[in-house]
TrEMBL record:
Domain Beta-lactamase-related: 73-337
Keyword set includes Cytoplasm: no
InterPro entries the UniProt entry points to: Beta-lactam-related (IPR001466), Beta-lactam/transpept-like (IPR012338), Diverse_Enzym_Activities (IPR050789)
Matches recorded under PROSITE patterns: PROKAR_LIPOPROTEIN
Official protein name in the record: Serine hydrolase
Naturally occurring in which organism (per UniProt): Flavivirga eckloniae
Gene Ontology molecular function terms on file: hydrolase activity
Pfam entry (one): Beta-lactamase
Keywords annotated in UniProt: Hydrolase, Signal
Signal peptide: 1-20
Domain of life assignment: Bacteria
Length: 357
């Protein structure tokens, strides 16, 4: 029998750590009224569904749906406070789970921080930081690829070869900026930051982001590829940081102007993609492994201003400024294996809408 925990009461959480078109702004948004959980405490304030005037009868169908769809953990924050926190299948508030490609947005955040510190410029070519020969493309074609192309999935490198980002797997297909393709080459941004900062990626990440907002978690390197693992509350902390325009209380961690760029269309080939963030409310979108342009919004049932970190097998962070929400989901694939978007997103938002409206 799966275990379900409701936050109609306070649930204690211990952070997992191995060391310690434009989107509309929300109405009356202010970090002065936004709640941030303490950095060095397990406390996290809550709101009830009744306090918000939401539809309490819609909670049970949402819970049943999440349980049926292989969910491990699920949270809804409103203005930073926890309204719903659910755990299933022996998962708890202290259990770590992988972010998969939802963790790409952590790389985006760190890239913005490194640029603000003057370590990098995302308009510079990648070879300025990694040297030449980091791909198998000719020098002329390799030098077309900027850090911004890595963040926007428009490097022009062949996305069909595999996950490994060694030079032999990074082969030319099109000039940078002329083709959008979901590609693990974004990982080279982690190498760029490590080289520019003269620190390892995890050390720079921990000091510049993780520890400043009280996240737990660890980068796990598998086959020379970093995947972030943490509990759901740490994922929710990051989502809250993004909702708060990159600030944690009065500490501006990610530059607001950079984050605004990151959460709006980064190129015109796939307007539903920013800097490793997926964007709702656009007229067309493209998906991993395909060059087909699809008409319509990414997640029709979700608010148009929603943007999301989407990871393999339905790891999710949804940020919705107009509704003052951050929503996170961890677990196994809801149905079949997927790399980012799935039918689960739209079906889940149908259930969320019934709760919040």
């Amino acid at each position: 029998m799966k275990t379900i925990t409701y936050l109609s009461f306070f649930v204690l959480a211990i952070f997992f750590s191995c060391s310690s078109d434009e989107s509309p702004a929300p109405d009356d948004f202010s970090n002065d009224t936004l709640y941030f959980p303490p950095i060095n405490s397990n406390e996290w304030e809550t709101k009830s569904i009744g306090d918000l005037g939401w539809n309490n009868t819609a909670l049970r169908p949402l819970v049943d749906y999440l349980e049926a769809k292989n969910t491990k953990s699920f949270m809804i924050l409103h203005e930073g406070k926890i309204v719903v926190e659910l755990y299933f299948d022996n998962h708890t508030s202290t259990t770590a789970w992988y972010w998969a490609s939802a963790g790409k947005t952590l790389t985006t955040a760190i890239s913005g921080i490194a640029q603000e510190e003057g370590l990098i410029n995302i308009d510079n070519k990648v070879s300025d930081y990694l040297g030449t020969g980091w791909t198998s493309a000719t020098l002329e074609k390799e030098n077309l690829i900027t850090c911004k192309h890595l963040l926007s999935m428009s490097s022009g490198l062949d996305d069909s070869i595999g996950d490994n980002v060694s030079p032999e797997n990074l082969q030319y297909t099109a000039d940078a900026g002329t083709r959008w393709a979901y590609h693990n080459v974004y990982k080279k941004m982690q190498d760029v930051v490590a080289e520019a900062s003269n620190q390892t990626w995890p050390v720079y990440f921990n000091s510049k982001l993780r520890d400043r907002i009280g996240m737990g978690g660890i980068w796990v390197n598998t086959n020379d590829f970093n995947v972030y693992w943490s509990n759901a509350r740490s994922m929710a902390r990051f989502g809250l940081l993004i909702y708060a325009n990159g600030a944690w209380k009065n500490d501006q961690i990610i530059p607001e102007n950079f984050l605004n760029e990151a959460t709006n269309s980064s190129q015109n080939i796939n307007p539903s993609y920013g800097y490793l963030w997926w964007l709702n409310g656009k007229s067309t979108y493209r998906l991993p492994g395909s060059q087909i342009e699809l008409n319509g919004e990414l997640v029709p049932n979700a608010p148009a201003d929603m943007y999301a970190a989407l990871g393999k097998n339905d790891q999710k962070i949804y940020v919705v400024p107009s509704k003052k929400l951050v929503v996170v989901r961890m677990g196994n694939a809801a149905e079949s294996e997927n790399f980012a978007l799935s039918s689960f997103d739209n079906d889940l938002w149908e259930k969320i809408n019934a709760l919040i409206e």
